[in-house]
TrEMBL record:
Binds 2 Zn(2+) ions per subunit. It catalyses: [(1->4)-beta-D-glucosyl](n) + UDP-alpha-D-glucose = [(1->4)-beta-D-glucosyl](n+1) + UDP + H(+). One of its GO terms (molecular function) is zinc ion binding. Pfam families: Cellulose_synt, zf-UDP. This is Cellulose synthase. Keywords: Cell membrane, Cell wall biogenesis/degradation, Cellulose biosynthesis, Coiled coil, Glycosyltransferase, Manganese, Membrane, Metal-binding, Transferase, Transmembrane, Transmembrane helix, Zinc, Zinc-finger.
Length: 1097
């Protein structure tokens, strides 16, 4: 991809594709001008027609082919264009061939994916990419005259270089020359006429092909040998034997400095694991587990007493309280037991470098595609997005391995221009970061940090260059702010680019797909002449009448675009406000993903979310410390943490809906001394059951393999004894149904290591990239159902991670010493409640869908403790209903003079006291092993009540309306001005409907406290005893709602009148209702006194 190719905009469905130049050149250009005038088959000039015009063989895509290759392809080949697969039409001056009389514009896609039956998936995918991106495009096995391109000959090491052995020293096995006929390129291709007997009733036609050789066997067995390889193997064996002898003689022996042994310690260190688990000390975790079990037993006795001893004078209150308490107990169990096996992890970055970054050799670290998603630049400031992109481009990782894709789902020209400015500033910022090794590498936060920036800096020019860079960044900020100011007023005719071309995204709901490569393989160099990572702007196509699935749809579009352009085996997604706080974050993740021991089964590595700009007291629990430092570490000891939507490194193959690799079970250690007849006598049906089970498993695995991808090709050539072929669905139809109708993307899914075709032209790559982001590409495919980000909930992150765990994958929780990413969190109460509302609404949608963890995913690889955590993540909003009722009970008890329990006996008091002690002990021990402070723990408890009686309650009703009635209700927020000082937004108040229920609860409980105390004063000292229990109950509610009360009143008592009016009205109605039913004045049990009418005076 070239960085100066311009903005490519187009629609695959409308057959539109234009290129808009950045440098002010004349208007839109057709895409074929990108390809040059050189034949893509033979390399000669395309030439001219008989009329003197440029020769164009294909009128559909203008793929450059000279007249000689065009006539040969029509005469001897398959008569279709190698790029778009449209049949060549007869041009003026060209001889007629059979088929010219047929109907024009007939695509020949019938054999698009037919390859050798036993092809290796990697080589087959390479051939597919060749088949659609360069010449020799297809493998038509039935046509002996078609040129079959062959990938590079496989090495002995299955396609990977081993140390310093050059490719010419590797042994190769020649292929058979078969098929006959003329070929444009004299490359050998396997013969397709070699039958192989599989079973007694099946045969398969295999192709002889270059195959990798087993290094443990003698090379003479293959007919060829390699002196370099033999010497290498002998030297390696001698070193291993000597290493074992030294270990057996003494483990602490100092290594000699001989030349032959100098690399042994290095080699031994490079073979060590890249990470390890760190279980918590038993002195901390065992008491925690014991108190959980004790609390479970005490809760059982507590509920036995509560159920068997109802309050007869307040039966409704007792019944409501018992139901609520049982629900709370179930929620506690679902939340508590997934924290039974908490662990921590440690990484070894030095070992990663020793293994994959050897001196004098290219880096063997895996490539990674990083996604940044943004929608509205007015709500997500472009300066924040620019800082995130700059931190990505300056990350401590090989530049050729990093690609950054920015998804602009709002098609805003402001985002496009801001990204253009960012790419220019990155040419100065990135070399500065790498020269002085600074962190963080987001300039806004680097220049704002309050610390000694001279610490550990020894370069004499650091201060001078830092001042110059700060001045450059301030100028950059001014340019970005000018763009934002300009975007405030939209012109009537819409936005236009510098060359006068209308901006394709002027209509946000109806615009073509757009792709712009800002930094790429050419043009992407910094001021020092070093290469920069790729930076690609992507805005997917949007049309009326299509469901675009919001963020999940945008992420799936990025998955497909990146697969076509770079196809890295790993993906990292971050929100536009989450920047790289640790430049080595990718290396931290690769210590798990590239670890041979655990990496194969890891679907993603999740980092915790950390935030900047939060007040010291964290009034509204924005940091979520309890969740990230307790719950997530507990899940990491089971099957891994849940996906939280940002700061996560994915394995691309796991996103494609594949199953996790199965663990190899060790062989059963059974005694072989008994004769088989004894075994048969003891277990007469055992062998039959085993055989039937093995046959069933084999059938199941073959069907799964056929659905999942590459091995499905092996099914096509299987025939029955009578020679009839089995009615298998062709692999082409299966892959198109699963991944869509892009041959290049489908071919890329078969490449586990993420390789791409380097010889592809920019024109063909951009054509496919525009195709895969078209609005109708996902129709009738598995996208959003089994592949990529899963649709059906606004919290697509939980659903996506849940599906991966159901496929048997495990995830990993990585908590580096320096936070990997940092973002921004809502400071004021209203924004925080709306954030919690969106999360809770997504959980309700999952609970009411087919993907609910209560009934989905059984029989897969999901562990039962992991399932409990997902159940808890989907049912927690429903706790708002019993929580609201339970918080109302204290006020009711104070107003009526009744209570939810009868008079307590000594035994009953013991159970109540024991339960409270266990609750506090659980929290204290949890804080001890996790390191969470008591203030963070208490803030989490408070906001659990605040969010439960407000945002969670509205999420339940909104989810029911949306899922059952199809009514999508949104709660709007109206902003009011804040103070111009630090944390001024903390005191900014925004009116929202979510504030009414907790405000009403506060007023009702305050009224109840006043009424209860007044009643006790009127009735004497005997009523003070029962009053204390009721007051404690009410104060429990008020203390938990105290942060809400503080945010509601604010620092300057600017609570909106509407909140006060509504809350007082509801509280008054509620209080007067109870006064009417049960007044405070004591009733007299004596005779009824009436006025006699006589004047006693």
């Amino acid at each position: 991809m070239e960085a100066n190719a311009g903005l490519v905009a187009g629609s695959h469905n409308r057959n539109e594709l234009v290129v808009i130049r950045r440098d002010g050149e004349s208007g839109p250009r057709p895409l074929q001008h990108l390809s040059g005038q050189v034949c893509q088959i033979c390399g000669d000039d395309v030439g001219l027609t008989v009329d003197g015009d440029l020769f164009v063989a294909c009128n559909e895509c203008a793929f450059p082919i000279c007249r000689t290759c065009y006539e040969y392809e029509r005469r001897e080949g398959n008569q279709v264009c190698p790029q778009c697969k449209t049949r060549f039409k007869r041009l003026k001056g060209c001889p007629r061939v059979p088929g010219d009389e047929e109907e024009d514009d007939v695509d020949d896609l019938e054999h698009e994916f037919e390859w050798g039956d036993d092809h290796d998936s990697q080589y087959m995918a390479e051939a597919m990419l060749h088949g659609h991106m360069s010449y020799g495009r297809q493998g038509y096995i039935n046509n002996p005259h078609v040129a079959h391109p062959l990938p590079q000959d496989p090495l002995l090491t299955n396609g990977e270089m081993v140390d310093d052995i050059p490719p010419e020293h590797h042994a190769l096995v020649p292929s058979f020359m078969g098929g006959g006929g003329k070929r444009i390129h004299p490359l050998p291709f396997p013969d397709s006429n070699i039958p192989v007997q599989l079973n007694d009733d099946k045969t398969i036609n295999l192709t002889a092909q270059p195959r990798s050789m087993d290094p443990s066997k003698d090379l003479a067995a293959y007919g060829y040998g390699s002196v370099a390889w033999k010497e290498r193997m002998e030297s390696w064996k001698q070193k291993q034997e000597k290493l074992q002898m030294d270990r057996s003689n003494g483990g602490d022996k100092v290594w000699d400095n001989n030349d032959d042994e100098s690399d042994l310690p290095l080699m031994d260190e490079a073979r060590q694991p890249l990470s390890r688990k760190l279980p918590f000390p038993s002195s901390k975790i065992n008491p925690y587990r014991m108190i959980i079990l004790i609390r479970l037993v005490v809760a059982g006795f507590f509920f036995h007493y509560r159920i068997t001893n109802p309050a007869k004078d307040a039966y409704p209150l007792w019944l409501i309280s018992v139901i609520c308490e049982i629900w709370f107990a179930v929620s506690w169990i679902l939340d508590q037991f997934p924290k039974w096996l908490p662990i921590e992890r440690e990484t070894y970055l030095d070992r990663l470098s020793l293994r994959y970054e050897k001196e004098g050799q290219p880096s063997q670290l895996a490539s990674i595609d990083i996604y940044v998603s943004t929608v509205d630049p007015m709500k997500e400031p472009p300066l924040i997005t620019a800082n995130t992109v700059l931190s990505i481009l300056a990350v401590d990782y090989p530049v050729e391995k990093v690609s950054c894709y920015v998804s602009d789902d709002g098609a805003a020209m402001l985002t496009f221009e801001a990204l253009s400015e960012t790419s220019e500033f990155a040419k100065k910022w990135v070399p500065f970061c790498k020269k002085f090794n600074i962190d963080p590498r987001a300039p806004e936060w680097y220049f704002q940090q309050k610390m000694d920036y001279l610490k550990d800096k020894v370069h004499p020019s650091f201060v001078k260059e830092r001042r110059a860079m700060k001045r450059e960044y301030e100028e950059f900020k001014v340019r970005i702010n000018a763009l934002v100011a300009k975007a405030q007023k939209v012109p009537e005719e819409g936005w236009t680019i510098q060359d006068g071309t209308p901006w394709p995204g002027n209509n946000v709901r109806d615009h073509p797909g757009m792709i712009q490569v800002f930094l790429g393989q050419s043009g992407g160099y910094d001021i020092d002449g070093n290469e920069l990572p790729r930076l690609v702007y992507v805005s997917r196509e949007k049309r009326p009448g299509f469901n675009h699935h919001k963020k999940a749809g945008a992420m799936n579009s990025l998955v497909r675009v990146s697969a076509v352009l770079t196809n890295a085996p790993y993906l990292l997604n971050v929100d536009c406000d989450h920047y790289f706080n640790n430049s080595k974050a990718i290396r931290e993740a690769m210590c798990f993903m590239m670890d041979p021991l655990i990496g194969k089964r890891a679907c993603y590595v999740q980092f915790p979310q950390r935030f900047d700009g939060i007040d010291r007291h964290d009034r509204y629990a924005n940091r979520n410390v309890v969740f990230f430092d307790i719950n997530m570490k507990g899940l990491d000891g089971i099957q891994g943490p849940i996906y939280v939507g940002t700061g996560c490194v994915f394995r691309r193959q796991a996103l494609y809906g594949t199953d996790a690799p199965k663990k190899k079970k060790p062989p059963n250690r059974t005694c072989n001394c008994w004769p088989k007849c004894c075994c048969c006598c003891c277990c007469p049906g055992g062998r039959k059951k085993k055989a039937a089970k093995a046959k069933q498993e084999k059938k199941r695995s073959s069907s799964k393999i056929a659905e999942n991808g590459a091995p499905a090709y092996a099914l096509e050539g299987i025939k029955e004894e009578n020679g009839t072929e089995k009615p298998y669905t062709t692999a082409e139809q299966k892959l198109e149904k699963k991944f869509g109708q892009s041959p290049v993307f489908v071919a890329s899914t078969l490449l586990e290591n993420g390789r791409t075709l380097k010889g592809a032209t920019p024109a063909s790559l951009l054509t496919e990239a525009i195709h895969v982001i078209s609005c109708g590409y996902e129709d009738k495919t598995d996208w959003g159902k089994e592949i990529g980000w899963i649709y059906g909930s606004v919290t697509e992150d939980i659903l996506t991670g849940f599906k991966m765990h159901c496929h048997g994958w495990r995830s990993i929780y990585c908590v580096p010493s320096r936070a990997a990413f940092k973002g921004s969190a809502p400071l004021n109460l209203s924004d925080r409640l709306h954030q919690v509302l969106r999360w809770a609404l997504g959980s309700v949608e999952i609970f009411l869908s087919k993907h609910c963890p209560l009934w989905y995913g059984y029989g897969g690889g999901l562990k039962w403790l992991e399932r409990m955590s997902y159940i808890n993540a989907t049912i927690y909003p429903w706790t708002s209903i019993p929580l609201l009722a339970y918080c109302t009970l204290p006020a009711v008890c104070l107003l009526t003079g009744k209570f939810i329990t009868p008079e307590l006996s000594n035994v009953a008091s013991l159970w109540f006291l024991s339960l409270f002690i266990c609750i506090f002990a659980t929290g204290i021990l949890e804080m001890k092993w996790s390191g969470v402070g008591i203030d963070d723990w208490w803030r989490n408890e408070q906001f659990w009540v605040i969010g439960g009686v407000s945002a969670h309650l509205f999420a339940v009703f909104q989810g029911l309306l949306k899922v059952l009635a199809g009514i999508d209700t949104n709660f709007t927020v109206t902003s009011k001005a804040g103070d111009d000082e630090d944390f001024s937004e903390l005191y900014t108040f925004k009116w929202t409907t979510l504030l009414i229920p907790p405000t009403t609860l506060l007023i009702v409980n305050f009224v109840g406290v006043v009424a209860g105390i007044s009643n006790a004063i009127n009735n004497g000292y005997e009523s003070w005893g029962p009053l204390f229990g009721k007051l404690f109950f009410s104060f429990w509610v008020i203390v938990h709602l105290y942060p809400f009360l503080k945010g509601l009143v604010g620092r300057q008592n600017r609570t909106p009148t509407i909140v006060i009016v509504w809350s007082i009205l509801l509280a008054s109605i509620f209080s007067l209702l109870w006064v009417r039913i049960d007044p405070f004045l004591p009733k007299s049990d004596g005779p009824l006194l009436e006025e006699c009418g006589l004047d006693c005076n």
